[in-house]
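B., you asked whether I could sanity-check this one before it goes into the benchmark set. Here's the sequence:
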Amino acid sequence: MNLSAIFDEAAARRVFPGGVVFTARDDQIRAHEAFGTTAYDAAISRPVSLNTLYDVASLSKLVTLTAFLVAKRSANVSETEPLARFLPAFDTDDKRAITLRHLMMHSAGFGLHLQRLHGEECATWIEKIAAAPLENAPGEEVNYTCTAYFLLARVIEKLCGEAADAFIEREIFAPLNLKHSSFQSLAHFSSDEIAPTELKDDGKPWHGIVHDEAARRWQSETGGFCGNAGLFSTAADLARFCRMWISDGEDILHPDDVQSAFNDTRLENDAGGVYRGWGWQFDNETHMTRDAPPGTAGHQGFTGPTLFLNPHTRDMVIVLNNRVYPTRNGPARFVYHRRIAHEHFSRVGAMP
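And here's what the prediction gave me:
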């Protein structure tokens, strides 16, 4: 088996039409290859290149996490501070105990999913989240939710006094030289450089416009980054981002925050024995493969991407594809992601 055969099979079964793979160990690139096309429809399809941009969906949360860690250090704020200090609507009996750490770890107890608000005016979102009942008490359980990272982005804006995307572009994208990462992809790249996502009611795909309904509404109405989704990027840019994380933060993150993100973990509810740290999920064999060494941290996105790394072995595996084209209801993708990851570990071998 090889990577090309995996992508050929996925395209034949209409799992995803193509994609990009980047793998590395210890700063040595083992694979950086593009496969297939951006679409099945010849009218909009283009060959995938190494610089094809993909809507990376919830991988955006890792950028939000990074920006928050930078902002809190700059503002000399602890992750144990209550959310209500920055967003007073949460100064209520049931939500007063929610901390910034709870947001990072998806343990605030939110039951209201952000996507339910995409039909509401954005100006009301914070108040509606604050008014909704919690699913469980803050800190009691870990339940993954986009709502927490929407709020974390609003805290970033309170801490830095500017839009979250402007702060991210200056403090993260610029120093890492992420020239192919953007929240406004069509302002900087042509549609030919961007993979399309799901077909709209008019039969045309979302193309360069964020797929997530809530993030799309937030950007359309406010012009800003929602926090849970919205980033378009390439495998090479995401690899530079990952390299920062496995290099003690380089000059962007404080090493103590990197260590806390990887070591302050909790068992995730209903996730088959996997753990959640500050933003990262650990040892999830569903998309990381059982070949990955213990302590592997990763994230996946609804539109198709998978990213994981190991700070000890310095492995990185990034898989980008647009599995929601032409529909979000296509065949399961993770079996192909696991096979791609298996190829990487077969090539590099086990660590001594």
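One thing to flag: The chain is about 35% helix and 10% strand. Otherwise nothing jumped out at me.
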